[in-house]
Design a protein that fits this description.
Pfam families: 2OG-FeII_Oxy (PF03171), DIOX_N (PF14226). This is Fe2OG dioxygenase domain-containing protein. InterPro entries: DIOX_N (IPR026992), IPNS-like_FE2OG_OXY (IPR044861), IPNS-like_sf (IPR027443), Oxoglu/Fe-dep_dioxygenase_dom (IPR005123), Plant_2OG-oxidoreductases (IPR050295). Keywords: Iron, Metal-binding, Oxidoreductase. There is one protein chain. It contains nine helices and 15 strands. By secondary structure, the chain is of the alpha+beta class. The strands form three sheets. Strands 2-3-11-8-13-6-5-4 form an eight-stranded mixed sheet. Strand 9 and strand 10 form a beta hairpin. Helix 2 packs across helix 5 and helix 3 crosses helix 5. It is globular and about 55 Å long. The N and C termini lie close together (12 Å). The structure holds 2-oxoglutaric acid and fe (ii) ion. Fe (ii) ion (FE2) binds next to loops. 2-oxoglutaric acid binds next to strand 6, strand 8, strand 12 and strand 13.
Length: 312
C-alpha cells in the first residue's frame, strides 16, 4: 500500500465543493412533492459525484457503536488469536487481512452484526429503489434487473494505525452496487470530483454512500462509480466501517435496456468474475489507473490477471 501521489494542496475542503446530503426520511416518507424533489437531488448527486451523505437513515447509532466497539476489540486481540482469522480470501465469512488492514468479521459479534447487516441492507435497498426512480424507472427496476431479493453483502472494517509514512488506502472504486461508509472521529476519506480530491467530512449521524462499479454498469454509465481513497496523517488511529451491497455472485450484470437506447456501454459480466478480476490487479499508487483500465479490459473481455493483491 502506498501513499497516493497528489500533493495535499490539491485536496479541497467541503466548503469549496459541498458533498450532497440526502434525507432518507423524506425519500421514503415524504409527500409526493417532497419525494420528487429529493429524488431529483439524489439523481444529481449520483450523476455529479457518485458520492453523498445520508441523514435520517434509520440505522440506530447504538447498533453502529456496538459493531465499531466489537471491531476495535477484534483488532486488539492478541496476535495468536488473530492468526485464526488471517485469511486473504474475500469470501471467507470471517477474515482478517493485513495488507489493507481490513477485517471481514461476523461471528465474533454475530448478534450485533446480523442486525446491523439487516438494517444497513434495508437502507441500501431503499436507496437503490430511489436511485431507480431518479433515472425515470420504476422503483423496483434495478432490484429486478439484479435479482436483489437475494443479494450479496460484505461488511469491512478498516483500521489505520497512527501515522506511519504509508498509511492509507489507494485510489479505487468499490466493486459493488452501493456502499455505506461510517468512520470514527478521524477524517481521512477523500473522493475525486472533476479530477480533484475532496476531503469527505461527515456531518453527525450520517453515512457516506459510495456508488460502485455495478451501479455504473447497470445504469449504462449514467451514474459513475466514485473514485475514492483514504489518507491518514494524524496521531490517532482511524477506523471505518464499510457495508457493501451487490447482486448475488452469479448474477450477470448488464445495462438496463431502457437506459441503453442510444447504445450499450458495457457488456454483461458475472459479478463474481468482476470481483475476481479486480482482485487480481496490482494495487499501488497508480491503482486508480489500474482499476479503471481493469474495468475497461474486463468489459471488453480482454483482461488477463497478473499479480495478486486484495482490493477493498
Ligand atoms: O477508510 C475509508 O475511509 C475508506 C475505506 C474504503 O474505501 C473501502 O474499504 O473500500
Ligand atoms: Fe472503498
Amino acid at each position: 500500500m502506498s501513499r497516493p501521489d497528489l500533493p495535499d494542496s490539491q485536496v479541497k475542503g467541503e466548503s469549496e465543493d459541498r458533498i450532497p446530503v440526502v434525507d432518507v426520511d423524506v425519500l421514503v416518507n415524504g409527500d409526493a412533492a417532497q419525494r420528487s424533489e429529493a429524488i431529483r437531488h439524489l439523481g444529481r448527486a449520483c450523476e455529479e459525484w457518485g458520492f453523498f451523505m445520508v441523514i435520517n437513515h434509520g440505522v440506530p447509532a447504538s447498533l453502529q457503536g456496538a459493531t465499531m466497539d466489537a471491531c476495535e476489540e477484534m483488532f486488539g486481540l492478541p496476535a495468536e488469536e488473530n492468526a485464526e482469522y488471517m485469511n486473504p480470501t474475500l469470501m471467507a465469512p470471517v477474515s482478517l487481512g493485513t495488507s489493507l488492514n481490513s477485517a471481514y468479521w461476523r461471528n465474533y459479534v454475530k448478534g450485533n452484526v446480523t442486525e446491523y447487516a439487516t438494517r444497513t441492507r434495508g437502507l441500501m435497498l431503499a436507496l437503490t429503489a430511489a436511485i431507480s426512480e431518479s433515472m425515470g424507472l420504476d422503483d423496483g427496476r434495478i432490484a429486478e434487473a439484479l435479482n436483489l431479493e437475494d443479494c450479496f453483502q460484505l461488511i469491512v472494517w478498516n483500521q489505520y494505525p497512527p501515522a506511519g509514512p504509508d498509511v492509507g488506502l489507494p485510489p479505487h472504486t468499490d466493486h459493488g452496487l452501493l456502499a455505506l461508509l461510517f468512520q470514527t472521529g478521524v477524517d481521512g476519506l477523500q473522493v475525486q470530483k472533476n479530477g480533484r480530491w475532496i476531503l469527505a467530512k461527515p456531518i453527525p449521524n450520517s453515512y457516506f454512500v459510495i456508488a460502485g462499479d455495478q451501479l455504473e454498469i447497470v445504469s449504462n454509465g449514467r451514474y459513475k462509480a466514485a473514485l475514492h481513497r483514504a489518507m491518514v496523517h494524524g496521531e490517532q488511529a482511524r477506523m471505518s466501517s464499510v457495508c457493501l451491497l451487490g447482486p448475488c455472485l452469479d448474477t450477470v450484470v448488464q445495462p438496463i435496456p431502457e437506459l441503453a437506447l442510444q447504445g450499450v456501454e458495457f457488456r454483461g459480466i458475472k459479478y463474481r468474475e468482476y470481483i475476481e478480476h479486480q482482485r487480481t490487479k496490482t494495487v499501488n499508487e497508480n491503482a486508480a489507473v489500474v482499476v479503471d483500465r481493469a474495468r475497461r479490459e474486463i468489459l471488453a473481455r480482454q483482461g488477463s490477471p497478473n499479480s495478486p493483491e486484495i482490493n477493498a
